[in-house]
Design a protein that fits this description.
Elements: E1 9-11, E2 14-16, E3 23-27, E4 34-39, H1 43-59, H2 67-83, H3 85-96, H4 109-127, E5 132-134, E6 139-147, E7 150-154, H5 160-173, E8 177-181, H6 190-200, E9 207-209, H7 214-223, E10 229-233, H8 236-248, E11 252-256, E12 262-265, H9 271-283, E13 295-299, H10 303-314, H11 335-351, E14 353-356, E15 373-376, H12 383-386, E16 393-399, H13 402-410, E17 417-421, H14 425-434, E18 439-442, E19 461-462, H15 467-474, E20 475-483
Parallel strand pairs: 7-8, 7-10, 8-9, 10-11, 12-13, 12-17, 13-16, 15-16, 17-18
Antiparallel strand pairs: 1-2, 3-4, 5-6, 6-20, 11-19, 14-15
Helix pairs in contact: 1-7, 2-4, 2-6, 4-5, 9-10
The structure holds nicotinamide-adenine-dinucleotide (NAD).
């Protein structure tokens, strides 16, 4: 074991071991060595966390506090995330292999975005108001929007702090308490966030965090009678299980799930921008991004030109040690994920042809590294074009015209994001209206305005989060009404 002691839960403002005393190992995906171990949560820990969360919710010190108080605390927390950016990014590299990136003067962009999540909802809750319905002088009726209770927040490992703050920010800003179950594969960086909330002055018990596996800690959180709702980011398979269990206690749920997003490149696109963006869209974070443009659809007249440009662009994504400054492509998160991606590459050799990549890179005997890979000569119905691989693996398919591109793009069970590269506004508008995806980026990628409805259609999600939609999910809206005596 190393510089790290056993990672603990955070319950009622205290770092605590698992009630059972059990732990599990945290593996560094770049070296396959054990970094440390972590409390292995189960139903007893979840129950303690829910009780702490409920107690503080009922006491009202946060749930009924002035919005300006919550704003102050969340702004302080945002400042602390930025101040501790380097430390958090390093822990994320150790836990899930995302590259440190180049040396930066200010906070890492992903930490700046995490801080923005907090600031955005801290302001949103302060500015939001209720409605009065004035009909005539005989009735006064108005809405009241209040914190709803205790939420279970269940998050994946592929953007540990950014995706967690995206859920915590609205949950906590609107006055709820939270029990957070981060992924077992990202159990290191989350400690810093617990320390930050404490330092920022958040009352103990408002934010609680239980480490552990989905089956052991996630399931009892979903099943707990005293949890009001579950906000989940992860795979559709887990979402189905959560939906079934949550239904038994009539919990509200919000699901942000996986994708197999189409990146559609028309012949009139600016290829100087579209090609590097297509490479970044599938190789960033080793392809472990929910909105990765994993199916690249290219108009046939530029198909060959695109393939050679894409292969050149991919060369800039050389796998290397994620701790080395400047590395762009680190390892996959885990042995399980590595084996999964490798099995899809075997399948790709049967279903189509590997244009480049497809192997473990030379010189990496240890670590879960995979070369950036492109699959071609494959049917849009092939499994490698239908299933989310979640690795640095693009399938590249030709199309004749907009209608064929739309048909291929919509021909999956997923519907998270779509990308359109074209010089024509008419084409962009025509295709955007017909793509069955929750989010569409035109001649760009990943730009966000946090007021937008983030989420997916079909198997990519249920519900939207962002701006006022998050407020709807994390609050209880009621009305009060009383008759007036007309004079
Ligand atoms: P996952 O579904 O395996 O796990 C997600 C979380 O759920 C983890 O914390 C896990 O411990 C927990 N969990 C597992 N089984 C559970 C159960 N039965 N009950 C309750 N909790 C349970 O997903 P993952 O492998 O961690 O993440 C990758 C997936 O997440 C991909 O499909 C990716 O596209 C998706 N994702 C979606 C978004 C989005 O915003 N749409 C963002 C990031 C990742």
């Amino acid at each position: 074991m190393t510089e790290f002691s056993t990672q603990k839960h955070f319950i009622g403002g205290q770092f605590v071991a698992a009630a059972s005393g059990n732990t599990f190992d945290l593996i560094n995906p770049a070296t396959e060595a054990c970094t440390t171990d972590a409390a292995r949560g189960d139903a007893a820990d979840i129950d303690a966390a829910v009780r702490a969360a409920r107690e503080v919710f009922d006491a009202g010190v946060w749930s009924r506090a002035k919005p300006s108080f919550r704003r102050k605390v969340l702004f302080r927390a945002a400042d602390l995330i930025e101040a501790r950016s380097e430390e958090i990014v390093r822990l994320q590299t150790l836990e899930m292999g995302s590259p440190l990136g180049p040396e930066m003067k200010g906070p890492h962009p992903v930490m700046a975005r995490s801080a923005w999540n907090l600031r955005f909802f801290a302001e949103e809750q302060e500015q939001a108001g209720d409605h009065a319905f004035n009909r005539d002088d005989s009735l006064l009726t108005y809405t009241m929007t209040d914190a709803a209770g205790v939420f279970g927040l269940i998050t994946p490992w592929n953007g540990p702090i950014m995706l967690s703050t995206w859920k915590m920010a609205p949950c906590l800003a609107y006055g709820n308490s939270a029990v957070h179950k981060p992924s077992e594969l990202s159990s290191l960086s989350i400690r810093v966030l617990c320390e930050i909330y404490e330092e920022a002055g958040m009352p103990p018990g408002v934010y609680n965090m239980v480490l552990g596996y989905g089956q052991e800690a996630g399931v009892p959180l979903v099943a707990h009678e005293d949890v009001t709702g579950i906000s989940f980011t992860g795979s559709p398979r887990t979402a189905r299980d959560i939906a079934e269990r949550a239904a038994r206690t009539l919990k509200r749920t919000s699901f942000e799930l996986g994708g197999k997003s189409a990146n559609i490149i028309f012949a009139d696109a600016d290829l100087k921008k579209a090609i590097p963006a297509a490479a970044g869209g599938i190789f960033m974070n080793s392809g472990q991004v929910c909105v990765a443009g994993s199916r690249i659809l290219v108009q046939r007249s530029i198909y060959d030109e695109f393939l050679s440009g894409f292969e050149q662009a991919a060369a800039a994504w050389k796998p290397d040690d994620p701790m080395v400054r400047g590395t762009r492509l680190g390892p996959l998160v885990s042995k399980g994920q590595y084996e999964r991606v490798m099995s899809y590459l075997d399948l790709a050799r049967e279903e189509g042809r590997i244009l480049f990549g497809g192997e473990r890179p030379d010189g990496f005997e240890k670590g879960f590294y995979v070369q950036p890979t492109a699959i071609v000569d494959v049917s849009p119905r092939a499994r490698v074009c239908q299933e989310e691989i979640f690795g640095p693996v693009a399938t590249i398919l030709p199309f004749e015209d907009a209608d064929e591109a739309i048909a291929i793009a919509n021909g999956t069970t997923y519907g998270l994001a779509g990308y359109i590269w074209t010089g024509s506004q008419d084409t962009a508008h025509y295709v955007s209206h017909r793509l069955q995806t929750g989010m569409i980026w035109i001649n760009s990628g990943f730009d966000r305005d946090l007021r937008q409805p983030f989420g997916g259609m079909k198997a990519s999600g249920l519900g939207r989060e962002g701006g006022g939609l998050s407020r709807e999910f994390y609050t209880e809206t009621r009305f009060a009404s009383f008759p007036l005596t007309p004079r």
